[in-house]
Amino acid sequence: MAVLLLMPSRDTSDLAAALARLEPGLDVRVWPKVGDAAAIEVAVCWSHPPGSLLDLPRLRAILSYGAGVDHLLGDPRLPEGVPIARFVDPGLARDMAEYVLTAVLAHRRGIPRYLEQQRTRTWDPHPYRPAGTALVLGLGRMGLAAARLLAAVGLEVRGWSRTPHEHEGLTCFTSEDGLAQGLAGADHVICLLPLTPATEGMLGRSLLARMAPGSQLVNAGRGRHLDEQALLEALDAGRPAAAWLDVFADEPLPGDHPFWTHPAITITPHVASLTDPAAVAAQVVECLHRVRSGELPGNLVDPVQGY
Ligand code: GLV
């Protein structure tokens, strides 16, 4: 019985080493060296080639190497009836919250402008913005962790999610009307939504036009949440005034993409929150034990909802 690491774009050595430490003797295979495909019980995936999971006849669970599962659910040829689980880790949520706080404070204190000024040896101090209001789109584990950290440093925090939520200290909205209320006067709009057919393109013309003058958009969800052309036009109109982006429709972001040189855009290369291979290894081992005793894996994904 074996685990398959099916992550063609990733280095699997740390995960393989962590699995060997946790469960000595575990048979770990790294795609494309699958060997006897009937031995594979669990596949750990990131951007697997569509259809490749169909080659594993005795697969009992599919685990995402990250929090997002859009890379899995986008495969129209998934094996039927095999449960899909995502990676859940308090460290992942904490790191995401820290990233969002960094982006928000950088905008508030005008840091991108000072980095630019340093290039031209310009000494030009500016007053900074008051703490302000943030709207967090998506109140899953990442969104909630970010919302709580922003509230802890004194921002007024609103949250928007597809299903109604209630959280102490946050004003929670749902539905299209709620989105309009959440956006009204928000200084920071932060996207931490899962990517599903319902959220794809949500950061489009209509939403951007309702952002406040001087505000900031932060996208650490998925690139396809954002209509990139609409953002360029919205920045020209000053609503929002700035964007801080970690994810892009095409990754790596192509060298000739206009975002690279846009003065109002800050780019990070999909590093907001990085999966810890040791934490994944622990979940893989737990999942193996569960499926071997006839249970479902934890952190199950609902393929219909898309997260
Ligand atoms: C990263 O993007 C993840 O989904 O964990």
Can you walk through the features of this model?
This protein is an alpha/beta fold. The strands form 2 sheets. A 7-stranded parallel sheet has the order 8-7-6-9-10-11-12. The mean pLDDT is 97. The protein binds glyoxylic acid. Glyoxylic acid binds next to loops.
β content, as a range? 15-25%
Give the helix level as a range of percent.
25-40%
Radius of gyration: 21 Å
Find the structural class using helix and strand composition.
alpha/beta
Secondary structure: number of strands: 12
* Strand and helix order: EHEEEHEHHEHEEHEHEHEEH
- How many helices does DSSP assign? 9
Through-space gap between termini: 28 Å
- The low-pLDDT segments are none
Enumerate the distinct ligands: glyoxylic acid
Largest sheet, described in full?
7 strands, parallel
Principal-axes geometry comes out as elongated
Query: Mean pLDDT, rounded to whole units?
Result: 97
Largest sheet, spatial ordering of strands: 8-7-6-9-10-11-12
Question: Which properties best describe this structure?
Answer:
binds glyoxylic acid, about 300 residues, 5-stranded parallel β-sheet, 12 strands, 7-stranded parallel β-sheet, alpha/beta
What is the element layout, followed by pairings?
Blueprint: E1 2-6, H1 13-22, E2 27-30, E3 40-45, E4 61-64, H2 70-73, E5 84-85, H3 90-109, H4 111-119, E6 133-137, H5 141-152, E7 156-160, E8 171-173, H6 175-183, E9 188-191, H7 205-209, E10 216-219, H8 228-236, E11 242-245, E12 265-267, H9 277-292
Parallel strand pairs: 1-2, 1-3, 3-4, 4-5, 6-7, 6-9, 7-8, 9-10, 10-11, 11-12
Helix pairs in contact: 1-9, 3-5
The structure holds glyoxylic acid.
